[in-house]
Amino acid sequence: MQKSAQKIIVVLLLTLFLVFGAQAKLLVHYIDVGQGDAILIQTPQEKNILIDGGPRVAGDIVVNYLKEHNVATIDVLIATHPHEDHIGGLLAVLDVFPIKAVYYPQISHTTKTYENFLIKTNLSGAKRIQEKSGVEVEVDPKINLVFLAPEERNYEEVNHYSIVAKLTYGETSFLFTGDTEVINEEKMLENKANLQAEVLKVAHHGSRTSSSEAFLEAVDPDLAIISLGKDNSFGHPHQIVLDRLIQRDITVLRTDELGDIVLVSDGKSISIEPNDMMLVHVTPTGKKFHLVNCRMLRDNKIPLERKEALLKGYEPCEICKP
Fold this sequence. Notes:
By secondary structure, the protein is an alpha/beta fold. It folds into 2 domains: about 1-275, Ribonuclease Z/Hydroxyacylglutathione hydrolase-like (Metallo-beta-lactamase, Chain A), CATH 3.60.15.10; about 280-320, no CATH class. It is built from 10 helices and 18 strands. Strand 11 (about 225), helix 8 and strand 12 (about 250-255) form a beta-alpha-beta unit. The chain is globular. The termini are far apart.
């Protein structure tokens, strides 16, 4: 009886460890929606936050991605600004998933897509909240999610109304920027906003209209995520932005090159969830594979898929952790 009781206790403890250990992770999914943004955040207490939904043509992609990752309800939906490449896909999301709260900027915009978005959010029964800088989003006590921009209501450009949000979990932090531009970056810097974050979602798909030197210095990220479509007509990401990131030894991950990108935080460090199709680089004499701008990678680098690198016996670099 005593051994049986001990075995039951061990099984219970193991079960509790597996259950609560899984809940202690924060997952941030940068979904490949082509030329647009869509980010799913799954919090330590299993709450779901969706920031944007990509263009309308990506609606089914986002819906299927959410289903594949066991999303039944969206606790917080953030529409950073009314442009179609950010809210178009949300029309399909609103048709499928219950939504508890929707945050959006205070802006008048008359496109049919935005009108439909407002109609669907109203019909959804979700709590509708217009963004206000400084407001904290109450969704999970283990994280802090606060809006940093926009701060004004009289901008001429729609991008200038983009919501900027910072998420902190333990010792790790993420900055989400929509299509915010230099005018907003300067305002946040002027107001001494706490911009520092380990991960930066690069604003406006890597456009030169954003990511100023001063802003990047304030954020000081280790990782930069760029969400964009392959061979897009805008020329994103612009080389000047890539150069600024590389010069600062910031690891750059792009959805047009890697597809979906998933980051995992345990509150102390951030890791990249392995994607066997992602492009990595090796050298003729090295034994590790690296991300393209890893400081441990030499000039004579050879690109290949992560899966192929593993099959050939290479191991992931401990520095860039591909």
